[in-house]
Amino acid sequence: MATDRLQAPGHRRSRRPCRLWDTRTSEPTLIADRALGDGHIGALDYTTDGTRLLVGERAGALYLIDAERLEPVTDPVRLAERMRWAFVASDQRTAFALTWDERFHVVNLEDARVLRSGEVGFHPTFAAFSPDGTRAAVAGLTGQVGVLDAATDEWVRPPVIGHKNTVWMIN
Asked: Burial, 132: exposed, middle or buried (Cβ in 10 Å; 0-12, 13-18, 19+)?
């Protein structure tokens, strides 16, 4: 079960950037250890059923892997920009990636292709899909919070300053 596990990104020099731990015991036990690519991991997100894990390298590669064995289940999606954060939609086939250059990409994980791309208009720090997958909330480095329509990539309402500091998480 996904809630009983912890993923820890490793350092790129270790060549072990993704590790899966069982935290149900008094001493965490390493279950799997997998090198996926060459870059630093910047994003981790479980699919809603907990069977797969989205792993995003800062260099721009997105991997969908089996959450127990840490084996890739599809080809990676490679973005041209450096990735800041990525997360999986409730359909478990679509992911949303934020980049360091104020862009977003909606990707199909099964086909390993970018469906749509667009401008965020500020430096994004975090995002999350709504439970039904129709909207994506995006937070920014200087306190912005906005909601994008996942089908049209248009702002539902223009982003507002929701906090005087960086917003690091939306839940």
From this structure: exposed
